[in-house]
What does this fold into?
Amino acid sequence: MHVLITGGAGFIGSHLAALHLARGDKVHVVDDLSTGSRANLAPFESKPSFRFDEADVLTWPLLQQAAAWADRIYHLAAVVGVYRVIAEPTRVLATNIAACERLFRTVAAGGWLPQVVVASSSEVYGHQHEGLLHENMDLSVSTRVGTRWNYSVSKIADEALALSYSQKFGIPVLVARFFNTIGPRQVGRYGMVVPRFVDQAVRGEPITVYGDGEQTRSFCDVRDNVAAMDLLASRESHDALVANIGNDREISMNDLARLICERAGSDSKICHVPYLKAYGEDFEDIQRRRPALDRLRTLTGFEHRYTLEDTLD
Ligand code: NAD
It folds into this structure.
């Protein structure tokens, strides 16, 4: 299979590249290295079945050629990370939506029909629903999460673009709604909670938990994430599909901090920090976010291979 991955030098994208290359597929990655890194691709650089282009999806002159070559396209390129989303709100909206639109416009104009997998996010559920989140719930944008509303707007727009292009041009589309994904190669500098806690625990520094720490999240190992995405994309039916991808075990930030200290053998103390101090703006965090996985399991029989403890170790 020929696989094109936008944002493939990033955390999730590099694991996708590894999965496909291990299977004998040919992989072409395009990435502007804004948050991704060439080091993530180092294990593949010498393989003849791998190709990398450093470029912005918005202006990449080879997009049409690469899309025509591909049997499957994963569109992961996006501005990510809470700090950048807050610092550059317009850039997040403009880049994320325009990149997705350019990709679909290019595929539609070409007349060929590669499968397109679009990386969406649990953020599309907003504040409206708390707890177990099902794909058929209404999506919502919450301004209670501060400037981060723009990230969820960009993902809702990407989903709408994907589904409308699919409907109009018959492009097989999978919208993959990722919940918190963790694992090797994830970097903490964009506000990702697990790498930050691990870093603080290993250094013996206070673990900074934002808010009261009773908010819960569900963490999925990136290797499970990409395996689930591939299984969904490999279904025989090519009908457009939206599916949650994650792990349904829930943990509070306080318990996560304690678990990380325990695994790291660290005596770091937990220190609660108000959102205003952490992000420079106040917001009301979403209290619970847990994926309903019935769709993923029913369609693929998927079972997780990694627990949170496995990933941390
Ligand atoms: P990441 O930052 O590691 O990967 C994103 C990649 O896209 C980076 O390598 C970056 O350099 C690249 N990129 C950004 N803009 C680009 C552009 N215009 N042209 C080319 N490349 C560009 O982040 P990630 O965690 O691997 O996220 C991958 C995707 O999954 C993103 O779309 C993100 O929104 C989505 N997502 C991730 C999570 C998570 O928990 N990691 C959760 C929900 C959704």
About this structure: Residues 110 and 198 are 46 Å apart (CA to CA). The domain at 2-182+220-247+289-302 is CATH 3.40.50.720 (Rossmann fold). The mean pLDDT is 92. The pocket of nicotinamide-adenine-dinucleotide is lined by residues 6-7, 9-13, 30-36, 56-58, 76-80, 95, 99, 119, 121, 178, 180-181 (CB under 6 Å).
